[in-house]
Amino acid sequence: MQQQILTLTELSGTRREVGQAHGRAHAPLIQRSLEVYDRLFHDFVGIGWAEARREAERFGAMIERGFPAILDEMAGIAEGAGVEPADILTLNCRSEISLTRASGGCSAFALARGGTQWLAQNWDWRTDQLHNVVALKICGQDHAPLVSVGEAGMVAKIGMNAHGIGVCLNAIRSQTCGEGLPIHVALRKILESPDMAGALAVASRDRVCSPAHFLVASAEGEAVGLEVHPGEPGRLAAAGGVVTHTNHLYAPDATRQVEDFPRADSRPRLARLDALLRQALAPEADVDEAALFEVLADHHGEPLSICRHFNPAQPAEERMETLFGVVMNLTERRLALRHGKPCETQDALVVELGR
What we know:
Blueprint: E1 8-13, H1 15-25, H2 27-45, H3 49-66, H4 69-81, H5 85-92, H6 94-98, E2 107-113, E3 116-126, E4 133-140, E5 146-151, E6 158-161, E7 165-171, H7 183-191, H8 196-206, E8 212-218, E9 223-228, E10 234-237, E11 242-245, H9 252-255, H10 266-280, H11 289-296, E12 320-329, E13 334-339, E14 349-352
Parallel strand pairs: 1-4
Antiparallel strand pairs: 2-3, 2-11, 3-12, 4-5, 5-6, 6-7, 7-8, 8-9, 9-10, 12-13, 13-14
Helix pairs in contact: 1-4, 3-5, 4-5, 7-8
Protein name: Isopenicillin-N N-acyltransferase-like protein
Keywords: Acyltransferase, Transferase
Organism: Halomonas campaniensis
């Protein structure tokens, strides 16, 4: 079923003001997100919301050390939405609390072609979060404008900034968790980075307390995959202008330090993504936004394909679907978002950030 194009929510001011505006604009969606993760924590980890809040407290201390300013924004979100600050902290630490048992099925890639740096991915997750997706344009007082596509009440997920820095996310299922920034807080710090060096430092200096893959690229044509975790991240350099990733670790520096537990479809999806991008690199191939959305709409190997649909053969708690696809032209600071499955619509929300 075709989804409506999302509306861009524009936020500005101090950290607290940005958070308050986010909370007011999306209070019903934030409340629904809390309900979704209450169920998810029960399904995957066997804990209730009160216990999840207690679990999140230790990550709050890590944020206080590594990115204290974002706590003020989280407090503003809670105030605007009429919920408790501990609820918003827990929501923003949902990966650390739940992803020891579950991982999404996201497929991401970076592609440099014809002087343009592209960055794209599908975000696959539980269907009950489909209508809690939000697109935020944040013009804060102490960083360049940025756009983030993610879940209501969370400080960031996938996006880019006006400096031409972009980031994508692949979930990794692992029992590793240590010291560092929670995944979604680290993503926001990357989105506030003025350059590639600053973005990479979030992984290597601040560190990330649980494993994930961050695909980071810049308008200058740089791209690197970062398999983050509490230690030094594994790095995947671009080969022929391409970096691809799904939901398993494969950088030697990461696999020597971290054990992951990917689903069986992760490696076949990666192989398919590599094959499609080899076709895109053929001399006669046109590479544009529409062509890259076609990659994200691919159904080879369905139902466990790049574009994922409902699969009744999976256990109910494991059913993941594509909730949005995004294609970013970092060179032009342009982000295009298709809400829902990218195969079902050609309509997109387009956001452009001034250079």
